[in-house]
Write a structure and sequence with these properties.
This protein is mainly α and about 140 residues long. It has 4 helices and no strands. Helices cover about 80% and strands about 0% of the residues.
Amino acid sequence: MTNIDNHINKKSSFPREGFRMGIVAILALLIGIMSVVSGAMVLLNYNIPNYNVLNWLVVYNVILGGISIIAAILIWKNNKSARKIILSILISHLLVFLYLYFLNQEVALESIKAMGFRVSVWTVIFLLTYKKINS
């Protein structure tokens, strides 16, 4: 392969990589916005679910939703700090999920499912961004 071929091959993979990171950033942004909006609606009594609501969990979700929005911006900018925030969000959600699943008797099944969804999404985000942001 010539230098021109190498340059073309390198260049062709970059747009796909940038596209993938853009999709990941949008995913992080969407889950962050969803968490902030749905949590704020519960906290402001605009939406009262038909199941037991743990106020601390709603506050947690709003705070982590805001952090998710920050993470989305850092992913979009390919900032190295994004890696730490992504891992922190994933670990936080995983620990809360484990607590809700194994230790909390008052939690609604909907809350466990929602936290399981968050853990799944942030695991995907972590896996898709780990190599790119790490390099």
